[in-house]
């Protein structure tokens, strides 16, 4: 399946982009890159620190540069941060340089998955559910407009999600083979 384009995972925090991305890359014998981890490695600082020092705007500018770099690579699986779709230039780059998969999950599932996570600057407030709902309302239409495929991750094993992604991306690349 080396003829597949870059596979780019988008979706909210807690959707499973990193976990599923690693499994997907292993399944396809590809390199996996996580834009948030790459930003941290490049800066030598974690994302909460970047938010504290540079604010969200500073972080988003770093994210634009990282997505530009990562999407220039070929034959990779990329997981983006949940807010990457907020910038039109990111959405355009993602659509142009790979097959984009929106990992959809509900706010309820997000709350369960990020309950103890202190590494998410936008959730360091007492009203986490309201914050997640507001982000969902703003971002879901952007995820859908950017994605080639939407895959639900709620109450599904990461392996089942990976299998669905592989099947559906193969259909995008070669629709005739999918009918065989």
UniProtKB/TrEMBL annotation:
Pathway assignment: Metabolic intermediate biosynthesis; chorismate biosynthesis; chorismate from D-erythrose 4-phosphate and phosphoenolpyruvate: step 5/7
Residues at which ATP binds: 14-19, 120, 156
Pfam families from the UniProt entry: SKI
Reaction catalysis annotation: shikimate + ATP = 3-phosphoshikimate + ADP + H(+)
Enzyme Commission number(s): 2.7.1.71
UniProt-listed Gene3D superfamilies: P-loop containing nucleotide triphosphate hydrolases
Cofactor note: Binds 1 Mg(2+) ion per subunit.
Enzyme class: transferase
Domain of life: Bacteria
Molecular function GO terms recorded: shikimate kinase activity
Residues reported in the UniProt entry to bind Mg(2+): 18
Binding site for substrate: 36, 60, 82, 139
Cofactors: Mg(2+)
InterPro entries: P-loop_NTPase, Shikimate/glucono_kinase, Shikimate_kinase/TSH1, Shikimate_kinase_CS
Record has ATP-binding as a keyword: yes
Main location: cytoplasm
Keywords: Amino-acid biosynthesis, Aromatic amino acid biosynthesis, ATP-binding, Cytoplasm, Kinase, Magnesium, Metal-binding, Nucleotide-binding, Transferase
Subcellular location, record wording: Cytoplasm
Role this protein plays: Catalyzes the specific phosphorylation of the 3-hydroxyl group of shikimic acid using ATP as a cosubstrate.
Homology family: Belongs to the shikimate kinase family.
Quaternary structure (record): Monomer.
Protein name: Shikimate kinase
């Amino acid at each position: 399946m080396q003829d597949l384009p870059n596979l780019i995972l988008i979706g909210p925090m807690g959707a499973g982009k990193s976990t599923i991305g690693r499994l997907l890359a292993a399944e396809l014998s590809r390199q996996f890159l996580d834009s948030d981890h790459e930003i941290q490695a490049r800066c030598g600082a974690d994302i909460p620190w970047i938010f504290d020092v540079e604010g969200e705007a500073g972080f988003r500018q770093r994210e634009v540069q990282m997505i530009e770099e990562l999407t220039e690579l070929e034959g990779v699986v990329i997981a983006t941060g949940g807010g990457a779709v907020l910038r039109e230039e990111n959405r355009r780059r993602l659509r142009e340089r790979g097959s984009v998969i929106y990992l959809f999950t509900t706010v309820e599932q997000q709350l369960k998955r990020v309950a103890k996570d202190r590494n998410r600057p936008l959730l360091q407030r007492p009203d986490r559910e309201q914050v997640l709902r507001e982000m969902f309302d703003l971002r879901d239409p952007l995820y859908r407009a950017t994605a080639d495929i939407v895959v639900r991750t709620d109450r599904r094993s990461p392996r089942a999600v990976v299998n669905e992604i592989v099947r559906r991306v193969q259909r995008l690349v070669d629709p005739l083979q999918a009918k065989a």
